[in-house]
Automatic annotation (TrEMBL):
<dbReference type="InterPro" id="IPR016163">
    <property type="entry name" value="Ald_DH_C"/>
</dbReference>
<dbReference type="InterPro" id="IPR015590">
    <property type="entry name" value="Aldehyde_DH_dom"/>
</dbReference>
<comment type="similarity">
    <text>Belongs to the aldehyde dehydrogenase family.</text>
</comment>
<feature type="domain" description="Aldehyde dehydrogenase">
    <location>
        <begin position="27"/>
        <end position="486"/>
    </location>
</feature>
<feature type="active site">
    <location>
        <position position="264"/>
    </location>
</feature>
<dbReference type="InterPro" id="IPR016160">
    <property type="entry name" value="Ald_DH_CS_CYS"/>
</dbReference>
<protein>
    <submittedName>
        <fullName>Succinate-semialdehyde dehydrogenase / glutarate-semialdehyde dehydrogenase</fullName>
    </submittedName>
</protein>
<dbReference type="InterPro" id="IPR050740">
    <property type="entry name" value="Aldehyde_DH_Superfamily"/>
</dbReference>
<dbReference type="Pfam" id="PF00171">
    <property type="entry name" value="Aldedh"/>
</dbReference>
<dbReference type="InterPro" id="IPR010102">
    <property type="entry name" value="Succ_semiAld_DH"/>
</dbReference>
<dbReference type="InterPro" id="IPR016162">
    <property type="entry name" value="Ald_DH_N"/>
</dbReference>
<dbReference type="InterPro" id="IPR016161">
    <property type="entry name" value="Ald_DH/histidinol_DH"/>
</dbReference>
<keyword id="KW-0560">Oxidoreductase</keyword>
<dbReference type="InterPro" id="IPR029510">
    <property type="entry name" value="Ald_DH_CS_GLU"/>
</dbReference>
<dbReference type="GO" id="GO:0004777">
    <property type="term" value="F:succinate-semialdehyde dehydrogenase (NAD+) activity"/>
</dbReference>
<dbReference type="GO" id="GO:0009450">
    <property type="term" value="P:gamma-aminobutyric acid catabolic process"/>
</dbReference>
Length: 492
């Protein structure tokens, strides 16, 4: 398959562009031959027609994964590590191909796509090593004739549902610890961005993983696939990244079979600039955190709080920096902000801006739809935002920066925590006593201090409150895919 993209050269992707699902080591169409369109957010052109599978094919994939689990779970950690390392190297060998596929279906600038591919591959590399460190314990016994030990065993078949905003990294962040632990996986990628998942499946196949260990179900009927994932008793773990609304529904559905679940859900990240902050660094951090992937990340800055004493200075410098951001095709190397994922996303953020202005916010820059360009919405700054406005309460998922004035530490912590979400947060200060107080006071699973970029393989990623449960990445990332078994040995 090859494709000619507007304003770019012809790209062939070295055999990684696929349009069929991957089940039990085979590329399969749906039983009724149905497909769905994948479009380029830059101009809404159709780039592929991908197989749309249903519950029957999903059940088959789960059955195959369960059969594969019987042998995969018994392979040595060294064997699993070797295959994961091979997959990592293949990803690194194909960074450009994978990045181009990602930009094609998701729209983000190519430099960001390259970064995502490397970030995604880093989870494969990390957990290739962690596979060899699933240690148990010996425990002092309660009786002289007994010995107590614990071992860790893979939980079983893992179903994973991944979002469109990071179509490579959100898969590798889930499958890497699962495969390293000895689990088998069935992935349902977002229907907007299935091509990255299928490209990864092509590399899994090339790496030589056994049939049934890694499976990808593509479909535009998410509810049907989700129902099979949650009701099938062979699935022992569900991992989901997406909206809080859908996450809550999946958790309810998993209750009937008491599955282990991990949820990475919505966010409403505060970005706080104290009066003693380095303003230039804070501006740089806000740009990086707010406008990466056109604001379409769960850890993006959502509300910018600026101390009254530096408010005007920050707004002026921030506005200058935002004006320099270039919008355009992700395949243009100078592009800093790509399109939103679809027209619905444009309408949503435009509605938030209009409502905020009607409620008294001041529009500094942007704020107008661009009707003659794909799914673009310009980088927008709103000042004089307050906590009563709709935009204060919603996850924006777009390149909109609302700025709120505050006067003291206690006030801003209260406002920052005034949300049901608790994923990521950021603040800038040069007072190290304040670093500890504010870090401990913010009700968030992750806190960035004097930085707007916090995602890394080696640290635990996850939230509290309605932002979910479980942690991905780091030494803690294997825990959700393992069961602890306690052995009490008597008669000694």
């Amino acid at each position: 398959m090859k494709i000619n993209i507007k304003n770019t050269k012809e790209i062939q992707f070295n055999g990684l562009l696929r349009d069929k699902s991957f089940i039990n080591g085979a590329w399969v169409s749906s039983e009724n031959e149905s497909t769905f369109e994948v479009t380029n957010p830059f101009d809404n052109s159709v780039v592929a027609n991908v197989a749309s599978l249903g519950s029957l094919e999903t059940k088959n994939a789960i059955d195959c994964a369960n059969e594969a689990f019987k042998t995969w779970s018994k392979t040595t950690a060294e064997e699993r590590s070797r295959l994961l390392k091979k997959l990592y190297q293949l990803q690194m060998d194909h960074v450009e191909d994978l990045a181009q596929i990602l930009t094609l279906e998701q729209g983000k600038p190519l430099n960001e796509s390259r970064g995502e591919i490397k970030y995604g591959a880093s989870f494969i590399e990390w957990f290739a090593e962690e596979a060899k460190r699933t240690y148990g314990d010996t425990i002092p016994s309660h009786g002289v004739d007994k010995r107590i030990i614990t071992i860790k065993q893979p939980i079983g078949v893992v179903a994973a549902i991944t979002p469109w905003n990071f179509p490579n990294a959100m898969i590798t962040r889930k499958i890497a610890p699962a495969l390293a632990a000895g689990c088998t996986v069935v992935i349902k990628p977002a229907h907007q961005t299935p091509l990255s998942a299928l490209a990864l499946a092509a590399l899994v196949e090339k790496a030589g993983f056994p049939k049934g260990v890694f499976n990808v179900i593509t479909s535009d009927t998410a509810k049907e696939i989700g129902n099979e994932f949650t009701s099938n008793s062979l699935v022992r773990k569900l991992s989901f990244t997406g909206s809080t609304k859908v996450g809550k529904m999946l958790m309810r559905q998993c209750a009937d079979t008491v599955k282990k679940v991990s949820m990475e859900l919505g966010g409403n990240a505060p970005f706080i600039v104290f009066e003693d902050a380095d303003i230039d660094n804070a501006v740089d951090g806000a740009i990086a955190s707010k406008f990466r992937n056109a604001g379409q990340t769960c850890v993006c800055t959502n509300r910018i709080f600026v101390h009254d004493k530096v408010y005007n200075t920050f707004v002026d410098k921030f506005t200058v920096a935002v004006r320099k951001l270039k919008m355009g095709s992700g395949f243009d190397e100078e592009t800093a902000v790509g399109p939103l994922i679809n027209k619905e996303a444009v309408e949503f953020v435009d509605g938030l801006v209009k409502n905020a202005v009607n409620e008294g916010a001041e529009l500094i820059i942007g704020g107008q739809k661009i009707d003659d360009m794909g799914n673009f919405y310009p980088p927008t700054i709103l000042s004089n935002v307050n906590s009563s406005m709709e935009i204060f309460k919603n996850e924006i998922f777009g390149s909109i920066a609302p700025i709120i004035r505050f006067k003291d530490e206690a006030e801003v912590i209260r406002m920052a925590n005034d949300t049901p979400f608790g994923l990521a947060s950021y603040f800038y200060t040069n007072d190290y006593a304040k670093v500890w107080r504010v870090s401990e006071g913010l009700e968030y699973g992750m806190v960035g201090v004097n930085t707007g970029m916090i995602s890394t393989t080696v640290a635990p990623f996850g939230g509290i409150k309605e932002s979910g449960n479980g942690r991905e990445g780091s030494k803690y990332g294997m825990d959700d895919y393992l069961e602890i078994k306690y052995l009490c040995i008597g008669g000694i």
